[in-house]
């Protein structure tokens, strides 16, 4: 399945998981394969997450990568 279609199918569910702040698509830096990227505030060991909050390793056959980006907030832009 196409990476963008797989993301569209699962984005709303992924956004409800603990620590998830965004979902996108990208390319794995090592293999060059298209992946779904799940942005989180911080990575948490699997054994410390509830089973329903674990990000799956793949969706619709598309690999999933988790990227910790810290806290996200909007800032006013002065002009």
Please give a quick description of this structure.
16% of the residues lie in helices and 30% in strands.
Structural summary, described in words:
The chain is of the alpha+beta class and 79 residues long. Helices cover 16% and strands 30% of the residues. The chain has 1 helix and 4 strands, in the order αββββ. It has one helix spanning 3-15; strands at 20-27, 34-40, 58-59, 62-68. A 4-stranded mixed sheet has the order 1-2-4-3, covered by helices on one side. Strand 1 and strand 2 (34-40) form a beta hairpin. It is globular. The model has no long low-confidence stretch (mean pLDDT 91).
Which percent range describes the beta-strand content?
Answer: 25-35%
Physical arrangement of strands within the biggest beta sheet: 1-2-4-3
Q: Give the structural class.
A: alpha+beta
Oligomerization = single chain
Rg (CA only): 14 Å
Q: Please outline the major beta sheet.
A: 4 strands, mixed
What is the residue-averaged pLDDT?
91
What percentage of residues falls in helices of 4 or more residues? Answer: 10-25%
State the end-to-end distance.
44 Å
Low-confidence stretches: none
Shape, principal axes of CA atoms: globular
User: What is the N-to-C succession of helices and strands?
Assistant: HEEEE
Number of helices: 1
Number of strands: 4
What's the SSE blueprint?
Elements: H1 3-15, E1 20-27, E2 34-40, E3 58-59, E4 62-68
Parallel strand pairs: 2-4
Antiparallel strand pairs: 1-2, 3-4
List keywords for this structure.
single chain, 79 residues, alpha+beta, four-stranded mixed beta sheet, 1 helix
């Amino acid at each position: 399945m196409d990476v963008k279609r797989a993301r569209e199918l699962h984005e709303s569910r992924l956004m409800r998981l603990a620590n998830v702040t965004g979902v996108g698509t990208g390319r794995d830096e090592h293999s060059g394969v298209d992946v779904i990227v799940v942005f989180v505030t911080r990575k948490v060991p699997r054994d410390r997450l509830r089973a329903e909050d674990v990000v799956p390793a793949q969706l619709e056959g598309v690999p999933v990568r988790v990227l910790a980006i810290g806290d996200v907030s909007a800032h006013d832009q002065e002009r």
